[in-house]
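Task 17 of the worksheet. Students: predict the tertiary structure of the chain below and write it out as structure tokens. Keep your answer in the requested format; marks are given for formatting as well as content.
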Amino acid sequence: MGENTNDRPAYLTSDDAKYSLGVHRGPMLPKGLNESSALEQVESARGLSLQSQKRTRKEKLARHWKRFWCIYLFANIIFLTIFLPIFFLVAIPAISQLVVDKSDLVLVRAAVMQPQPSSIRLTLQSALDLKIALPVRIEPIELDLFVRDRGASSSWGEATIPGVTIKGNTTLGVSDTHTPLQNLSTWVKYVQSVVFQKESTLSIKGTTNSYLGALKSKVTMDKDVTSPALNQFTGFSISDSGLVARRPDGTNLVGNATLPNPSVLTLEVGTIVLDVKSGDLVIGNATLTDVTLVPGSNTFPLKGILDFGTIFSHLEEVLSSQASLLKTGNLTLDTVTRSVTWNGTRVPYYTEVMSQLTLPANVPIAGLLKNSIHNLIGSSEEISSLLRSSSQNSSLGSISSLLNNTGSSNTSSLKSEGSELASKIKSHVAVRDILRDAHPVKRDMIIDSVAELYAKL
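Model answer:
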């Protein structure tokens, strides 16, 4: 057998190797040549160079890719097969839903008109800001309108928002839409929050498809929209009140009632009939007609019927309930809703909620007396001319000057003026008609006191 030319000579580097005997002794290293040098020499002799095997990072990556590209391609196909469905079916809808959840929805205008027992005409306009630069198109969405603690399944109504493209701050809503009341107990609870609270919350919920370019995803709008409410009509007042000659409908009191509305809500109410109370005693009623509350201050003509029979029968109770305010020159009249009607039909939900609210109003005594004297005595042309006459410097002439905010400072003259005025009041047909149910003695006593007080104004 020939010698194996592929066998590499094994050099012994030990200094003692040169003294070894036997077939395993191997060739001796040339002087000054170590094993690594010898190995390099041998490899170079075979046409290989260790220096030539050093590659750059780019070359290594290229060589790696050439060897394993099929594995990477197969892995990418598997990855995209799993990732793309997740991205389009899970990630995009989740991102779209997050955008809707984080968006701001503000009620800018609302109106509840034509209140009927089972329906209203509704306007809701809200500003929606998605806080993204790209436009988003949504399909029509049917929203449940509800109270949060009752849940969307007990919604009081529905509103269908037409499809629209949302970009930045966009106004969404419905206008003057007939809206059946689906759950009256939930509606009553919502109306109660609007009337009694400083802020009320309208909850809405609905699902639709949204489009971000060509990407379609299903989103659910489930939000609470909080806005200023009526706050128990804080600031309610009755002004320019005074007695008048009894009218065919029984009216003997007129004035103006102011109902503040700090909300963005326009509310058509209708005709409100109020019980007028002094303390716990009902002393008459008042009516406000064609009431529509717009944002801001609202003033409506008030007409009422005071029951002087009840007033004089319970005079001590009335005076006792008014004692603290009489010292300040005011009367307190509490009004409580008896009924609310619209277009001749009773509105049960407004009646129920408003009947739980007492509206107190301070009525200045001076204004009430002046207006009453003008309305009653001034209605008689003969007595009116006497009051205006001052040429003879009579007590009636002095009263005329009092009506024009001048007046005498003489105490005896004031008493005389009061006596003269009391006499005219007692004999006036309108006054006798208003006080026809009062006991004559109490009636005359009250008239004397009122006339003397008026003379001091």
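Marker's comment: Residues 380-456 form one domain. Residues 260 and 297 are 4 Å apart (CA to CA).
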